[in-house]
Design goal:
CATH superfamily: P-loop containing nucleotide triphosphate hydrolases
Strand content: 25-35%
Number of helices: 10
Order of helices and strands: EEEHEEHEHHHHEHEHEEHH
Radius of gyration: 17 Å
CATH class: Alpha Beta
Helix content: 25-40%
Number of domains: 1
Strand order of the largest sheet: 6-7-8-3-9-10
């Protein structure tokens, strides 16, 4: 479904990604692991069009997307729930969800809204509430829900558990699993390596802008290097 081939990305003159290549198959959950500054968020931003690779290609369902603007990538079927949530604080929950569907041209808004409210009943309860007054967990639900309103075939999730209480972390990961079981492919960036690997099919480990390890999630979770560096074991 997604093929990233040898992309190099710079922030000004500073290199951030050094020839990253990865793939995500239809129906998978694939996770990107690595310390802060490893290039995980940069990889997601490159896929969603927020950054443009200087070299390499990104293909989604056979179509090259690395030269498309972000709204065209959303329309093609890729949605991004960014790090830090980035919700519209002054809009209501419902208005935020409506913004997530801005690129849709069909009549499935009501169906998608019901899907989001089924996944996140709290959002239905808070639909008239100003988003900036939600709790951190509710804002994360809203960020994911807003991305789902685009009815993506590939969902990019950047640090969905950041800053959340353990009980909410479990809830968010259960929901990611549910989203995937409903047919949405997921590319997940997550500092909680154990939780990410526990729901993922495959994973990649990034260090200073390079992929240094890849494999099935069940193999990575018992890998000695991964356990020492990311699992605290």
């Amino acid at each position: 479904m997604l093929e990233v081939e040898g992309i190099h990305v710079y922030y000004g003159a500073i290199p951030a990604l050094h020839g990253i290549s990865l793939r995500v198959g239809r129906g998978e959950i694939v996770t990107l692991l690595g310390n802060n500054g490893a290039g995980k968020t940069t990889t997601l931003k490159s896929i969603s069009g927020l950054l443009r690779p200087h070299e390499g290609q990104i293909r989604f369902e056979g179509m090259r997307i690395d030269r498309l603007p972000p709204h065209r990538i959303v329309a093609a079927g890729v949605a991004h729930a960014p790090e830090g949530r980035r919700i519209f604080n002054r809009l209501t929950v419902l208005e935020n969800l409506e913004m997530g569907a801005y690129a849709r041209t069909d009549d499935s808004f009501a169906e998608n809204l019901e899907r989001v409210f089924t996944l996140f009943p709290r959002l239905k309860e808070r639909r008239r509430q100003v988003a900036g007054t939600l709790s951190g967990g509710e804002q994360q639900m809203l960020a994911i829900g807003r991305a789902l309103m685009a009815h993506p075939r590939l969902l990019l999730l950047d640090e969905p558990s950041m800053g959340l209480a353990p009980l909410l972390v479990d809830q968010i990961f259960d929901t990611i699993r549910d989203i995937n079981s409903q047919g949405t492919t997921v590319l997940l960036v997550e500092q909680n390596a154990y939780m990410a690997l526990s729901i993922a099919h495959r994973g990649y480990v990034l260090e200073t802008g390079r992929i240094v390890l890849e494999g099935k999630a069940q193999d990575l979770i018992v890998n000695e290097e991964v356990r020492k560096a990311y699992l605290g074991m």
